[in-house]
Amino acid sequence: MHSGRNFTTFQTIKWTRYSILIFVIWSSIVVIAHEAFAFYWLMIPWLPVALIGTALAFYLGFKNNSSYDRLWEGRKIWGSIVNASRAWAMKVIDFPDYNEETKALLTKEFIYRHLAWLTSLRFALRTPRDWEHHDKENEKRRKEFYVPEYRKTEEEELKNYLPEKEINKLFETNNHTTYLIKLQSYNLKKLKTSGALDSFTYVDMASTLNELYDLQGQCERIKNYPLPRQYASASMVFVKIFLMLLPLGLVGEFEQVSHSFSWMVIPFSTLISWVFHTMELIGDYSENPFEGLANDVPISSLCLAIETDLKQMIGDSTFPEEYPISKKIHY
Fold it and tell me: Is there a domain that residue 324 lies in?
């Protein structure tokens, strides 16, 4: 996630540079055909172009609002995961009634398994989907941004939190995150049976696990169900139609000012096309908040912060290392 004050003009232009080049070429072709080859039939009335542009602006507004809702919902879910993680650690530390040595071992086991759950969850959310952006340009950006899930494997990361036997058992399941919470519940029930937890405390701690299940499911819903393709696909088609017609409508308008003004179609058509196309891209890149780009929810950085908090709560000084990333980009 880009967390600086804003994207610079250079960054925005770099992001859309290939599209700008296409706009310049297309508008130049129209003007040259009109001026040099007298293809006056290329001119079309401005009114229908303006009507399409107005309708398109409303449609893009709807799509961008829908995309922003998905992005902001993802951020709210992870805010809840942060709070639920702290609450779980507090209950694990304070509630069980064991001797100090046994309690310390069990506390670390519960906390580390929760960190393993966070690790499996973020790896699951970074798994590529067909509707996400995985072209060469975006893969290059992921390498530049140091997305940790694309540099290490889940198994390598889990070795920091789970014994090898438990990791092997975990990889026999389809849904690692679901298995880990089930394992937490199983061990919690053993504490209840042994008398280390009373019924009220057991129910309270089990409700926190249910909350984590619910938050996991909300993340999976956003990850596994894209913005409906009819909305996402139609907007791009409409934008392309409008951008193709735009210089054809502008030629006549500028010619009314002066015959030599026809060449002004190139900069103005390029500018208007760039604005509409960038609006479409913003919506397109906001609809998938977990794919590992600069517009995403920074789930890796949030997991890093949670791990630091939880280890401090149990007096564990093996804090995770900060990712070698830009101060403005978090993952």
Answer: no
